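User: Hey, quick favor. My workstation is busy. Could you predict this chain's structure for me?
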Amino acid sequence: MVLQKRQHPARTRWMAAALGLGMMASGAPASLADVPALSVVGSQVQANGKAAELSGMSLFWSNTGWGGERYYNAGAVKAVKTFFGGNLVRVAVGVDESGGYLSDRDGNLARARAAIDAAIANDLYVIIDWHSHYAHEHEAEAIAFFKDMATRYGKKNHVIYEIFNEPKNDVSWAQHGKPYAQRVVAAIRAIDPDNLIVVGNPTWSQDVDVAAADPIRGVTNLAYTLHFYAGTHGEGLRDKARKAMNLGAALFVTEWGTVNADGNGGVAQAETDRWVQFMKQYHLGNANWALNDKSEGASALKPNTRTDGQWGTEVLTTSGQYVRDMIRGWTGAGSGVVLAVAPEGRVRLSERRQPAGSHRGRALYGCHR
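Assistant: No problem, here it is.
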């Protein structure tokens, strides 16, 4: 699906992005920069006509009282760029669990906006994630949320919409996921005709092949969500991803982990290495779960880590150290977006899971509380 750029205002913001990258390369202040618009061409997400190399961190659920919401601030988001070396952050807006958007709209919305604003200010791509396992049961709220986000942020190249985090294995693509996605996508496209939209699929966003075999048609710049946890998922899931791409679907790894799918266990080093190589081979954008200090293997930060982003490597868990090294080494040679990490850790863009479970059973195969 090739993007047909609208002449106004998208052409203007595309030119601003190109100008911004030129200023950064020439040493001009980074505050004048922007990021290139993303587009889907065939089964690939691109920037400036080349594979986009996007890598970064996912925040934890935004839900009030869950702990991870403490990192929804400008300092922590900036650290995704300056400390982790990333060019992408995911804002995981909890929906229907306790303390989520449906029960504390104002609190979650304020946190989401703070994180999104910080991402844009630091020229990070930002995934606005409707973090639910049963989003289709709250379609009206999802449409209202994404209409607000598109109106507020739709003119920014930074924005990526993730409209259904992880439909569980009792959610049908044909009966639930696809019809929901079609209506939410239509609501977004009525306001924002071209920023990337990523669509979740059943079995905790592992059935990418099912979605690819019955895709959403007539919409440009659409990708499908792929989630994995290296301690649980291996070659079988990679085969499903290859099948989806062979069918023409673009994939985006909006969430992945080095450990088991319930967030526990140690880093599965060998399998994580295989997954990282797979993502590099196919230029799959990725956000690691999670920028949080919960006492579990998936957390990047040790318990009681300060929340302002003023970190040294001593605050990193084993997973956090692996992920930081991976992100900082994500070279993206020849891509539209390349990470260039200065020795002091600053980054410039240059041209070249509450204890595991949910309200309908334990979430063994995807993001956990």
